[in-house]
Write a structure and sequence with these properties.
The protein has strands at about 15, 25, 30, 40, 45, 60, 65, 75. It is an all-beta fold. A hairpin with an 8-residue loop joins strand 1 and strand 2 (about 25).
């Protein structure tokens, strides 16, 4: 077995196939599993840093509030 065949991406990173160079999930996405596979989008009105590995890394964008990893609601005017 080739050494590269033993390499798999860690959570938060993805590649076309095992043994290839891993790239981080883009900002606003996350991936909980290791290996290949696509990154999932954060819930509505949230974003995350590149390479995020959990939905709880998704936080509300400016002008919205709510718990991490869940949809966020619009802030009241003036708040």
């Amino acid at each position: 077995m080739d050494v590269d065949d033993e390499c798999i991406c860690k959570a938060g990173f993805t590649a076309e196939s095992d043994g290839e160079e891993c790239t981080p999930c883009a900002a606003g996405k996350y991936k909980t599993a290791t290996g290949t596979g696509s990154c999932s989008s954060c819930p509505a009105n949230t974003t995350s840093a590149a390479g995020s590995d959990a939905v709880t890394d998704c936080v509300c964008i400016a002008g919205y509030y709510g718990p991490g990893g869940d949809s966020c609601a619009t802030c009241d005017a003036g708040s």
